[in-house]
Amino acid sequence: MNEYAYGMWVVMAFNVGLFLFFILSFIKPKIKIEWRNMGIVTAFLVALFTEMYGFPLTIYLLTGWLGDAYPVLQPFNHKHGHLWVVIFGGSTLAWALVMAVSIVFLLAGYNLMSKGWNKIHAAHGQLVTDGVYSYVRHPQYTGLFLLIIGFLIQWPTLLTIIMAPILLYAYRKLALTEEMKMNEQFSQGYKEYAHDLPAFIPPFNKWKEFMTVAS
Asked: What is the pTM of this model?
């Protein structure tokens, strides 16, 4: 079915606004570097939802290359213009699996960002070392990274694939800046807390506990 499933710019703008509002609810920029990083997040969301609802630039550019090998390709059809679905032969099962896996990552990201924010908010400026913070030093950024991975799985595009590592690097750099401030504020207490504790990724055998810890 050769439908044109794009050009939905209002839907695109709504989704950018919705997810940006959600992220800003848990990660509130205060200083210049934080606003700069949020600008990268915003650009990532704009690039993602532009191709999801506005114009499928990636699949359109790849049409000439993929067309013969993947005859199911229909660049302006939402399902058969989806890169993963095209590669897997247009299977509805492939579509469902991609969506399901991406939703798992998105929900996991939301879960961590929410729990991290609740801990920080309840601490009133005190050092937080329990709950999700007992597994990694920056669980909110871990949550953001899971969101980015979820979006990349759900709707891979050339621009977002290029931007994702830039975004991850930017937040890693921000995390290091924040740790310097924490060292100044809490001194030995923070050093003892951070000693041997991963920044973003807990050991593999701790992931289940990390994701299900109460707060």
From this structure: 0.89
Structural domain that includes position 38: 9-212
Task: Give every residue of the chain whose pLDDT is below 50, as ranges.
Answer: none
DSSP state of 130: S
76 vs 60: CA distance, rounded Å: 8
Burial pattern 128-159, b for ≥16 Cβ within 10 A else e, equals bbebbbbbbbbbbbbbbbbbbbbbbbbbbbeb
Name the H helices within the chain: 9-26, 32-49, 57-66, 83-87, 92-123, 139-154, 158-186, 188-194, 207-212
The per-residue pLDDT for 2 is 59
Give, in order, the Cα–Cα distances in Å from 156 to each of 23, 26, 43, 113, 152.
20, 25, 15, 23, 5
Residue 1 lies in a domain: no
Which DSSP category does 61 fall into? H
Gap between the Cα atoms of 81 and 2, Å rounded: 10
| Nearest Cα to Cα of residue 51 among 92, 8, 114 | 8
Is residue 3 a part of any domain in this protein?
no
- CA-nearest of 68, 94, 97, 61 to 80 is 94
In angstroms, the CA 46 to CA 15 distance is 9
- Answer whether 56's CB lies under 8 Å from 75's CB: yes
- Whether 75 is covered by a domain: the verdict is yes
CATH number for the domain spanning 30: value is 1.20.120.1630
